[in-house]
Specification:
The protein has about 190 residues and is an alpha/beta fold. About 35% of the residues lie in helices and about 20% in strands. It has seven helices and twelve strands. It has helices at about 15-30, 45, 50-55, 65-85, 100-110, 155-165, 170-175, and strands at about 10, 35-40, 55-60, 60, 90-95, 120, 125, 130, 135-140, 145, 150, 185-190. The strands form three sheets. An eight-stranded mixed β-sheet has the order 2-1-5-11-6-12-9-8, sandwiched between helices. Helix 4 (about 65-85) runs antiparallel to helix 6.
Amino acid sequence: IDIAKIPTYILNIPSRTDRQKNALLQVKKLGIKKPVVYPAITPKDLKIPYEELEKPLHKINRFTPGCFATRASFLSILEYVIAFNKPCFLYVEDDILIVDGAKEQLQQMLTELPDNWDVLLLSVYHYQKPDIVSETIVKVNGSWGMNLALFNHTSYEQLFTLVSNGFRGADLTVGMTNWLGSDLNVYAARHNI
């Protein structure tokens, strides 16, 4: 995978130009040539009464309005990459901070990434111990957070279904695909970039 040519979508609330500028600077550290700023869906856009957004959907989980909006935005990007047959894409949230040297780290990860990969989370928090795959890659057993993630076309349809039907945010759904009975292979950076 040529990092510079990975279709990259920065999720950004249009009124947050400060975050847009930051995210554009951050993805340059990865050598991304032409990132697309993708307009995020806001809670206001969803037109769901606030009281409904605040109701617990599960005894241990509560969606916030922002969580609903981020999930809707992620699904919108998935619809787009499916429609335009993108072989993979990099998902970036506009509050991302990327470490110096991240391009080299990502290139190393891509050489060590198993052929059966569906998702590579590049900035993630593990709540279940991951399995070490290589010097730079781990297999996810339970995580949250995906403000920087690479998705393979092999994951699109299943992720769309899981996230659409899930009672959690997109990041938790992706991080718990194994718990949800999915056969997706979700890997992560051993050290966040």
